[in-house]
Amino acid sequence: MKELLKKLVQAKSTPDVGELKCAKVLADFFSSKGIKPKLDIWNKNRANITTALKSTGKKPALLFVSHLDVVPADSASAFKPVERSGKIFGRGACDMKAGMASAATAMAEILRSKVKLQGDIIFAATAGEETDSAGVKRFIKTHKNKFKLCGIIVPEPTNFDLVTAHRGLLWVKIITKGKSAHSSMPQLGINAIDSMRLFLSELADYKIPGTNKLLGKASISVNKIIGGKAGNIVPDSCSAQIDIRTIPSQNAKQIVAGINKILTRLSKRNPRFRAELKVLRDSGSLQTDEKCRFVKHTKQLLKKTSRAVPFTTDAPFLTSLKAPIVIFGPGKPQMCHKPDEHIEIKDLKKAVEFYKKMILHFLA
Ligand SMILES: [Zn+2]
Predict the structure, then answer these.
(1) Of 29, 51, 282, 65, nearest to 156 (Cα)?
(2) Which residues crowd ion ligand 1, with CB under 5 Å?
(3) N or C: which end of the chain has fewer CB within 10 A?
(4) pTM score, two decimals?
């Protein structure tokens, strides 16, 4: 188990490297346990891996979906896992190679125990959760309407909190256009930074309607701004990247329309104002029905109450599989993407036990 996690950390799976190496580590692990893996490879270095433990098929299946990719690290040593004081350090140790290794190990242990399963265990690990969600989209495309599922577990680090809701994410980029001129005669140009300033002050008053009992309200944060060429040139272009976190009653289309309204208003008021909007990323929110059988049983079984988290995952893509989704896994969320990212070894074992318990409850 520890060894599998270390190998997974070593198999660097940052966006520049791709996920194939990491998927192959899992494939080797499953093969060595007598479980046949299936790799889906594209663009040379990108990959998903899926596998299943077959059953009598009398009960609907349980699906585990992890992500193979990790965020980049400042130092190459982040990909040399270190075991120290009961912890394993390394990029991805927490987010989310620990949860992925735990789910894979739980499957292998169930097979070894020779328990008769009435429903299949399906395992998928996909590419690009931190960037483009390309892997989960591919997985959905090929597997939609192929499974009958009782539930989906996403083993992301929740520190064993049972998570049933999170906000969605919408990244937009606003580019204001101007006209260069010598800044001793600014009246000859159109200052794109000035235009951005007009836009941002209007955006500050923009409220996205709606509130949610579990998730609160949407948030808007301007996180990156680029503009200008030199200290004495009127800038002809400026761009701002905005991170919007949404709740289930909101959708990207409405919000984009709201922002476009601001842009139209500004250009009507000021004929020199020119701007365009680009959607960089759009991923929905998650809210699993608390009253469904899967969540009710899971709460009882694990002695947990359900809650929401501020971060997003690939889980909203999985809603098209029409099964209840819970996010539940080892590791503290605040450890994710940190230079000293690590996982407690005892939490790996705890995760395997939790997953086996769920497998036996829903599938045996
Ligand atoms: Zn993650």
Answers:
(1) 65
(2) 95-96, 156
(3) C
(4) 0.87
Token match 């998570």: residue? 163
Which of 229, 249, 283 is the last residue before a domain boundary?
Answer: 283
- Say which CATH number the domain at 74 has: 3.40.630.10
Range of the domain at 188: 168-283
**Domain finish residue from 221, 254, 283:** 283
> Does one domain contain both 155 and 180?
no
Q: pLDDT for 113-153, tens place per residue?
A: 999 999 999 999 999 999 889 999 999 999 988 899 999 99
C-alpha of residue 88 to centroid of ligand 1, in Å: 17
Sheet containing 82-84: give its strands across: 82-84, 87-89, 342-344
Instruction: Please give the distance, rounded to the nearest whole angstrom, from the Cα atom of residue 182 to the centre of ligand 1.
Output: 48
Query: What separation in Å is there between the alpha carbon of 128 and the centre of ligand 1?
Result: 10
Are residue 109 and residue 237 in the same domain, yes or no? no
Quick one: 159 and 172 in the same domain?
A: no
pLDDT in tens, 50-104: 999 999 999 999 999 999 999 999 899 999 999 999 999 999 999 999 999 999 9
Give the Å distance between the CA of 357 and the centre of ligand 1: 23
For 248-276, the pLDDT digits (tens) are 999 999 999 999 999 999 999 999 999 99
Distance (Å) from CA 30 to ligand 1 centroid: 22
